[in-house]
Amino acid sequence: MRERLLAAEKVKAIEWKDGQLHLLDQRKLPLEEIWHTYESAAAVATAIREMIVRGAPAIGISAAYGLVLGLKARLDEGGDWRAALEADFDVLANSRPTAVNLFWALNQMRERLERLKPGDDPLAAAEAQAASIHASDREANLTMAQFGVDLIRKHQGNPQNLLTHCNTGALATGGFGTALGVIRGAHLEGLVECVYADETRPWLQGSRLTAWELAGEGVPVTLNADSAAAHLMKTRGITWVIVGADRITANGDVANKIGTYQLAVLAMHHGVRFMVVAPSSTIDMDLETGDDIPIEERAGHELLEVNGQRFAADVEAFNPVFDVTPADLIDAIVTEKGVVERPNAAKLAALMSRKRLH
Ligand code: MRU
């Protein structure tokens, strides 16, 4: 399946070339494909905050490259680059709060710079570290796709109707996707009748990004309003809800795009299995439960306006963009280190003690 997934690869959203970061503007898709070039850490932080790049692993990869850009500028300035670089760590860390991949990637960069030996070139080392974060995410996607497909097949070998939320594909990662990687793999293995994609209000990652990625590869996809999920589960024979994650805590609670929690509750009621697919860089063993996860709240105008045009009444809007699904609603967490069924603290600790495969 690895070769077939690689052969089907079409979309890329992050590119590092000649010391510059290039990002595909995800706010404009699918109507326009516009790339921007970045040369500073602060500009990359703004791109993350403004959702030009989004999705937990993609945010982490971009932040790592952003740090390389910051380091280059600090070295050019002369003086104490280590002290000066702290401002770049801060600006990147303050871009978005929920996806732990951002902080994980910045930590990887910090640790690499702390391991420099006399005579090492800091810029070359940082660039290699960022590239390795990028490449290992892609590898992790491939491994997770295989594990996820095995899990689907274990329960049922026929083509199935799957439901997904938000965008967890090539646009959100360094490779093929987490949940969408599993879905792509399942399609290649003849296990997909139809993928139902939640539109994912208010940023419409489902309508604009997931539907675009899947349709572009010939995966049968049908769009639905987020609020159609219960009806879909009742009437369309959905067998699995498959989603990604922005942060998974030590007990197996999962923060993901707002609306994921209600899907898990609905899935439990309808006897639909619930799979979370995320690399181990999304697992935060420092937080005990999902109650400790900072949940990003974005500006109300994202709910009140479409394309800058107000359509709602003159009221305040509450716009949390993630929610937390409790571990006991989850059938399986699929990572590149392995699969945890019916997650709990002991199983997550055992998983995380395994060596990272990539
Ligand atoms: O606000 P976004 O678009 O960054 O949110 C993305 C999600 O919630 C994804 O499901 C998650 O990051 C996993 S992406 C592989």
Mean pLDDT: 97
Largest sheet properties = 7 strands, mixed
Q: Report the helical percentage.
A: 40-55%
Write the CATH fold name of the largest domain: Rossmann fold
Write out the CATH superfamily name of the largest domain. Translation initiation factor eif-2b, domain 2
Please tell me how large the radius of gyration is: 20 Å
Low-confidence runs of at least 5 consecutive residues: none
Q: Say which molecules are bound, naming each kind only once.
A: 5-S-methyl-1-O-phosphono-5-thio-D-ribulose
How many distinct domains?
Answer: 2
Strand sequence of the main sheet, in spatial order?
Answer: 6-5-4-7-10-15-16
Q: What does this protein structure show overall?
A:
This protein has 358 residues and is of the alpha/beta class. The protein folds into two domains: 2-135, Up-down Bundle (Four Helix Bundle (Hemerythrin (Met), subunit A)), CATH 1.20.120; 143-352, Translation initiation factor eif-2b, domain 2 (Rossmann fold), CATH 3.40.50.10470. The chain is 42% helix and 18% strand. The protein has helices spanning 2-8, 41-49, 56-77, 81-93, 100-114, 122-155, 179-188, 205-216, 229-235, 260-270, 301-304, 345-352; strands at 14-17, 20-24, 35-38, 160-164, 192-198, 221-224, 238-243, 247-249, 254-257, 273-277, 283-284, 305-306, 309-310, 322-325, 332-335, 338-341. The strands form four sheets. A seven-stranded mixed sheet has the order 6-5-4-7-10-15-16, with helices on both faces. Strands 11-8-9-14 form a four-stranded mixed sheet, covered by helices on one side. A hairpin with a 4-residue loop joins strand 8 (247-249) and strand 9 (254-257). The longest helix has 34 residues, at 122-155. The protein is globular and about 65 Å long. It starts with a helix and ends in a 6-residue tail after the last helix. Bound molecules: 5-S-methyl-1-O-phosphono-5-thio-D-ribulose (MRU). The site of 5-S-methyl-1-O-phosphono-5-thio-D-ribulose has 17 residues, from helix 3 and strand 9. This is Methylthioribose-1-phosphate isomerase. Pfam families: IF-2B.
